[in-house]
Amino acid sequence: MATVYLGIGSNIDPEENLRLGIAELRRRYGEIELSAVYRSRAVGFDGDDFLNLVVRFESEESPQAICEAIEVIHNLAGRDRKGGKWEARTLDVDLLLYNDLVVDAPPARLPRDDILEYSFVLRPMAELAPGLVHPETGKTMLEHWREFDAGHQPLEIVGVVL
Question: Which of 10, 48, 81, 82 could disulfide-link 17, Cβ–Cβ 3.0 to 4.6 Å?
Fold first, then answer.
């Protein structure tokens, strides 16, 4: 069994789309653990704020199979990829970690760089798994969060029930 971490975000009907994404993950993987939900500004474009969280679950599926399941969930949420990377989205689900696997082979780059680049990924990771060691840096998620300059990427916890 692998321990899997996914980052999930939305800025189009975010509560509805996060609920859809979480429901589909629960249906497929059973019990999942959730971080708090955080509100953050859109990065790379002008748009509505995003709601983001990180989830953890156990799976026997390969990273490739998990990425395929993520695409099914994106399609269920009506995700449109025509506009490029920096755009509003109904649902964005990213495979962040798969055990301590380090790989750079599409469709998965593990660990995902977003973990150390964005507060809306690192803070919920540090909340959900503070003692988890990043497979490339050797530091815990909490250590990374304490070193992170969160001032330029402010977050707010929101009370969304998923």
Answer: 10
Domain 2-158 has CATH 1.10.3720.10: no
pTM over 0.90: yes
How does the average pLDDT of the chain come out, rounded? 92
Per-residue pLDDT tens for 8-67?
999 999 999 999 999 999 999 999 999 999 999 988 778 899 999 999 999 999 999 999
The neighbour count for residue 117, using CB atoms within 10 Å, is 13
The two beta strands, 103-105 and 108-110, are: antiparallel
**pLDDT tops 90 at residue 137:** yes
In angstroms, what CA-CA distances link 60 with 66, 70, 72, 159?
10, 15, 18, 32
Cα separation, 148 vs 88, in Å, equals 25
H-type alpha helices, 30-158:
63-76, 114-117, 119-128, 141-147
Between CA 29 and CA 42 the distance in angstroms is 29
Domains of the chain, by residue range, sit at 2-158
d(CA 9, CA 85): 13
83 pLDDT higher than 60: no
